Structures are given as structure tokens and as C-alpha cells.
Amino acid sequence: MDEDTAIINKNTRNEKIINFFANNTKKIIILTSVIVLIIFGYFIYEDLKNKNKVKLANKYNSAIIKFVSGDKTKVENELIDIVNKKDKTYSPLALYFLIDNNIINENNKINELFDIIINETSLEEEIKNLVIYKKALFNSDFESENNLIKILNPVINSDSAWKSHALYLMAEYFYYKNQKEKSKEFFNEILILDNSNPNIKIESQKRLNRDFSD
């Protein structure tokens, strides 16, 4: 009797499974097709992304070789184009090369390129903070106090590893402007910061002892 009941239950389950597939064949085919397309789409996307990365790397290296060899006619446009690609690796490198080699002398143009990397490029948070710091460093020779602080605010108001660098830059900026009280405040803030860079912390203490001791 128990065996007969088990057979009937098994047959019932099998029939339900068969009926489910029979009644939902179209949906199952569509779902399977979508999953297959998503998988293929992902691999195609990754393949294209890798190929584009290689092309961008080749373009960057080619521009550097041209610059070093003295063929500088198209280097500026090529590096700007790389910045505009918004690649998290080569766009910052292209901008730094433009700045370090004085290829672009217009401050506004440099700042526009910085903004593309900071605001439109998908960067890890600490890399983004580094770029913000570098933008402030670039602007520190000619920008006003308010604008420089505005640039650095995202880093100063964070727990970033670059916060002590930003504070040190502001301390030096105010010291150069002969605003020693403001400079002292920033140096002191570095000393009480939990994650200050050790070298910057030591240097800040030296500066306070040397330039601000009574």
C-alpha cells in the first residue's frame, strides 16, 4: 500500500513538472535567452573594454615618445583627448604629463581638465582625493584663499589619507602670505589628526618649533 502511494505521489510530481514546463515553455525560452544574452553581452563588453584600454595605453605611450623625441606638434591634442576619454588610469597620467612638461600654459584650460577627471571620471575615492590635492597644488601659486579652500574642502572635510597633505598645503600658503596665525592653526590641526602622514606631522612640528615659537 505504501509503495503504491509513493508511486502515485511520484507520478503526480512528475506530471506537475511536465505540466509546468508545457504551460510555461515560452516564458522559459525567453528567460533562458535573456540570461544567455546577458552573459554574452558581459563578455563582449569586457573584451571591448580591454581592447579600448590597450588602445588608450598605446596612444598615451606614443604621445610620450613623440614628446621625448622632439615631435611635439600633436602631443597636446592627443593627451587632451586621452583626458576626455575619462579613463581612471590614463586620463590622470595624461593630465599630469601636460602639467609637468608645461605643454599647456592656460590655467583655466588645465582646471577644466582637472574637473573632467574629478567630476566625470570613475575613480577610487582616495585617487580622486589625490587628484583634488594636485589641483589645489597647481592653483596655489595664483588662486585666492577662498578658491583654494573651496578646491580642498572635499579632502579637508573627509578622513582621507590626503587630508594632512591638504592641511599642510594651506599652512604653507598662509605662511607665504604672511598670515601666520592662520598658518599656525593648520599646522596644529595636522598634529592632532589621527591619520596624519608621519613625515608631514614631523615637518609640521619642526615648522611650529622653528617659525612660531615665542
Account of the protein in words:
With 214 residues, the chain is mainly alpha-helical. The chain has 2 domains: 1-123, no CATH class; 145-214. It has helices spanning 2-23, 25-69, 75-84, 90-100, 107-120, 125-139, 145-156, 163-176, 180-192, 198-211. Helix 2 (25-69) runs antiparallel to helix 3 (75-84), helix 4 (90-100) runs antiparallel to helix 5 (107-120) and helix 5 (107-120) runs antiparallel to helix 6 (125-139). The model has no long low-confidence stretch (mean pLDDT 85).
Order of helices and strands: HHHHHHHHHH
Mean pLDDT comes to: 85
Strand content: under 5%
Molecular shape: flat
Radius of gyration, in Å, reads 30 Å
Name the poorly predicted regions.
none
Distance between the termini: 103 Å
List the helices and strands and how they pair.
Blueprint: H1 2-23, H2 25-69, H3 75-84, H4 90-100, H5 107-120, H6 125-139, H7 145-156, H8 163-176, H9 180-192, H10 198-211
Helix pairs in contact: 2-3, 3-4, 4-5, 5-6, 6-7, 7-8, 8-9, 9-10
Give a brief outline of the structure.
This protein has 214 residues and is mostly helical. The protein has ten helices and no strands.
